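Most newcomers find our protein records easier to grasp once they have seen one. Sequence and backbone structure share a record, each on its own labelled line. Nothing more is needed to start thinking about how sequence determines fold. As an example, a complete record with its sequence and its structure tokens follows.
=====
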Amino acid sequence: LLAVSSDKGTLIRVYDLTTTQLLHTFRRGHNYAEVCSMSFSFLNELLIVATRESTRVHIFKLSDKTFLDDL
């Protein structure tokens, strides 16, 4: 899997590298934010996204395309 963010940091897209298929598109927010880190959980169930503009991390559940929480 590969996760990329838009230039504004508002959209996060997840691709399958073996098929090049877009699997998920998540909205992180509406305001510009520089994404500084993205990481998949060990079993690729979650995607964690951190930005420089906030002390929070965003957690997305890949299996059902839901936003879990801001921590």
Q: What stands out?
A: The chain is about 0% helix and 55% strand. The mean pLDDT is 89. The beta strands are 2-5, 11-16, 21-27, 35-40, 46-51, 57-61, 66-70. The longest strand covers residues 21-27.
